[in-house]
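Task card 7
Instruction: Convert sequence to C-alpha cells.
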Amino acid sequence: MARRHAGDPAAGATGATAGEATPLRDRAAVADGDTVVVFDCFGTIVGELRPMPGPDEFVGWVTKTLAVDRRTADDIVTSVFTTLYDALVDKSALQPATLGLLDEALRERGEVRSPDELHRALWYALGCADDDRYELCEPAARALRRVAGAGHTVRLLSNCYLPGGLMRRLLGDLGVPEVFDRAHFTADGGPKKPDARAFELIGSGSFRRRIMVGDSADNDITPARRLGWDAVPVDPARPDFSGLYALLDL
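Output:
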C-alpha cells in the first residue's frame, strides 16, 4: 500500500470536511454550485498493484485472525463468496453486507466473534495491510481537490467488499483527500453499480448537473449516461482528468 508523500498536501490531512477544504467554494457556488461529481474508487482513485486476494488467501487469513480451523474457515469463505458472487452476477440484486455475511457464517458454525475481530479479519483478508497491494492515483487526488476547491460537491461510489469504516480507513491511509461529503460503499449493503438505484442514491439532492468519473464502461460510464449524467472515462494505466476539467471549465 502506497503511503502519503511528504510533499503531498493530503499528507497532513486530519479529517477536514469538504467545506473546510474548499477555499474557492463561495466564489464557485455562484457560478455552478449545483453540480455533483461522483468518483469511482478502485481503478480511478485507488490503483490496484496486485489483484484482490482470492479464496485461498482469504481462507488463510480467516484461519489466522479468527482462530478457527482451516476446514471451518474454508466453509465460511465459501459461504460468503458464493452469496456475494450470486448477488454480483445479478446486476439488479442488492448486495448483501459483507460484515453481516461473515458474522452469520460464523454463528451458523458455533463461532461467535466481536465486530472488532470481524473487521480485523476483513482488513487482512482483503489485502489492506499489504504495502504493495494498493496505491493512490495522484492525478485523481489532484482532481478531487481541484473539483472540491471550485465549489462542486464531491461524492464516492464504489462496488467493494470492504465495509464503509474500513474503506474510509484504507482511503485515509493512502492519502485520498477528504473532500467528499458522502459515499456509497456497496459492502454495507444495498444497490450496486450498474444498478440505476446506486446512482440515484449517491446522486440524490437538488443538483442541476451530475457527473460520473470512473474506469469501467459497464459499471460507471454507460449506466450514468443512461440516466442523463455526464460521464468521464478514466484509463487506470494513463489517468487523465482533462475531460473532467473541461466539463467544469476548470
